[in-house]
Amino acid sequence: MVNDISKLYLNEKFSDVVFVVNNEEFHAHRVLLASRSEYFSLLLYGEHIESREMKVPIKEGSATSVKVLLQYIYFGRMDLSILESNIILELLILSNVWRFTNLQFSITEYLRRNINVHNVSSLFAVALYYQLKELEVDALSYMVTHVKDVLQSEDSVSLTPVFIFYIIKSIFLVLSN
């Protein structure tokens, strides 16, 4: 059955919804999406305008991350080890927004095992924003241990001043205790 369903991935045949992400279109099937996610059930069969539209704009994530998440929906699995870190982070956000709790848990666990100086600031910011406590604690612990390298990393430079301030404040609170 999984093999039959996976044949529908990005297939126009029987497609009744098209996701539009940055002008890129992805054909999908409402009933399958709704069966895999309460978010899609409400979006595509509820009172939202999207339930009456063929084309549904997606503002969260990139075309790549949405395509990978659709692949997960149709195939039931995902190999995070072959994905770039920015895509994995987008998938964490999408799994949170679209309420894929099992996927969110798996991605969080993967990221907790793969924290490094190049991703820790972004992981901390996302964990803080989406209230992913375990990832937040692990990222903060890593930052405390590698404070100089973290603050000099390209990852921390890309954050807003508010997050930089919060990170520095959190580090000093941990160090002072």
Structural description of this entry:
It contains eleven helices and three strands. α4 crosses α5 and α7 packs antiparallel against α8 (133-145). It is 61% helix and 7% strand. β1 and β2 form a beta hairpin. It has a domain at 1-81: Potassium Channel Kv1.1, Chain A. The mean pLDDT is 89. It has helices at 2-6, 30-36, 38-45, 63-75, 85-97, 101-113, 120-129, 133-145, 147-152, 154-157, 161-176, and strands at 17-21, 24-28, 55-57. With 177 residues, the chain is mainly alpha-helical. Strands 2-1-3 form a three-stranded mixed β-sheet.
Largest sheet: 3 strands, mixed
Helix count from the secondary structure assignment: 11
Q: Predict the CATH topology of the domain at 1-81.
A: Potassium Channel Kv1.1, Chain A
Q: How would you write the strand order of the largest sheet?
A: 2-1-3
Work out the oligomeric state of the chains in this entry: single chain
Poorly predicted runs: none
What's the alpha carbon Rg, rounded to whole Å?
A: 18 Å
Based on the coordinates given, report the CATH architecture of the domain at 1-81. Answer: 2-Layer Sandwich
H/E topology pattern: HEEHHEHHHHHHHH
Strand content: 5-15%
Q: What is the β-strand count?
A: 3
Q: Percent helix among the residues?
A: 55-70%
Q: Overall mean pLDDT score? A: 89
In short:
The protein is mainly α and 177 residues long.
List keywords for this structure.
Potassium Channel Kv1.1, Chain A, 7% strand, 177 residues, 3-stranded mixed β-sheet, 61% helix, mainly alpha
